[in-house]
Design brief:
This protein has about 240 residues and is α+β, with helices and mostly antiparallel strands. The protein folds into two domains: about 25-100, Winged helix-like DNA-binding domain superfamily/Winged helix DNA-binding domain (Arc Repressor Mutant, subunit A, Orthogonal Bundle), CATH 1.10.10.10; about 105-240. Helix content is about 35%, strand content about 10%. It is built from eight helices and eight strands; from the N terminus they run αβααββαββαβααββα. The protein has helices spanning about 25-35, 45-55, 60-70, 100, 115-130, 135-145, 155-165, 235-240; strands spanning about 40, 75-80, 90, 105-110, 110, 135, 170-175, 190-195. Strands 1-3-2 form a three-stranded antiparallel β-sheet. It has a three-stranded antiparallel β-sheet with strand order 6-8-7. It has a two-stranded antiparallel sheet with strand order 4-5. β4 and β5 (about 110) form a beta hairpin. It is elongated. This is RNA polymerase Rpc34. Its main location: nucleus. Keywords: DNA-directed RNA polymerase, Nucleus, Transcription.
Length: about 240
């Protein structure tokens, strides 16, 4: 028989350090949240998970009380989920939330950081222009050395920035021939060169695609008409339409 005998089961205190003075219900909630690792879990889903794992139906007020207790004890934390801003999402302090939750380097406190993205685009263009020919790895390494992004950019995130520049006809994708200006780059490797000409360090020309929020959105590849990320639910796109 489970040690849980229902929502009104005796709440025994547990000795220990990190989980000192936890009740059985506190521990059940904590175990569920920890099991989700860096993905965390919505508050509304905790009840179902506890029922599956322990066979009890914990009332919503009891779950809320447990969450407050665990946050106070610094065992869990609430994080902002970019896909569902209005829902409470919790993760164990043992983990950092995944990029799927936070949005990655392009988001700040759950919101798309358009100013930083514009700055990163300028850095990409300037570095490619300075090198004349640049690989994805070279641009990524350079941007991370600048410390402009609060977290290290992955190659995929840098590729998204360069992709926006390509759509605005500021940068073009080419393949190395291994000769001439490509002498230091392996044959066939994808690299980038600038199309537009401007003074090094000047503001990038704003292309047609960049004039709308989609032009700087690093998640545009995930945007679909009926998806979690879509023009219908995008507050930035709706604000642009109302402008």
């Amino acid at each position: 028989m489970s040690r849980f005998q229902g929502a009104n089961a005796l709440k025994r205190k547990r000795p220990g350090s990190a989980s000192d003075a936890l009740t059985d219900h506190d521990q059940a909630v904590l175990d569920v949240i920890r099991s989700k690792q860096d993905m965390g879990i919505y508050q509304r889903d905790i009840k179902r998970e506890i029922h599956i794992k322990n066979g009890i139906n914990l009332p919503d007020p009891a779950i809320t009380k447990c969450l407050k207790s665990l946050v106070t004890k610094n065992l869990i934390k609430e994080v902002k989920n970019i896909q569902s801003r209005g829902k409470k999402h919790f993760i164990s302090v043992d983990f950092e939330p995944s990029n799927e939750i936070t949005g990655g380097a392009f988001y700040n406190e759950g919101s798309l950081d358009t100013e930083m993205i514009a700055q990163l685009r300028r850095l990409c263009w300037n570095h490619i222009n300075g090198l004349q020919i640049a690989t994805l790895e070279a641009v990524t390494e350079y941007i991370n050395r600048t410390k402009v992004p609060k977290v290290q950019l992955s190659k995929q995130e840098t590729a998204e920035l360069i992709g926006a520049l390509i759509l605005d006809n500021e940068v073009m994708e080419v393949k190395s021939s291994g000769t001439g200006e490509f002498a230091s780059i392996p044959v066939g490797k994808v690299c980038y060169k600038c199309i537009s000409k401007r003074a090094h360090g000047a503001e990038p020309k704003v292309g047609a695609f960049a004039s709308i929020p989609c032009g700087v959105c690093p998640r545009i590849s995930y945007c679909t008409p009926d998806g979690i990320i879509s023009p219908k639910t995008c507050v930035y796109y709706n604000k642009w339409l109302d402008f």
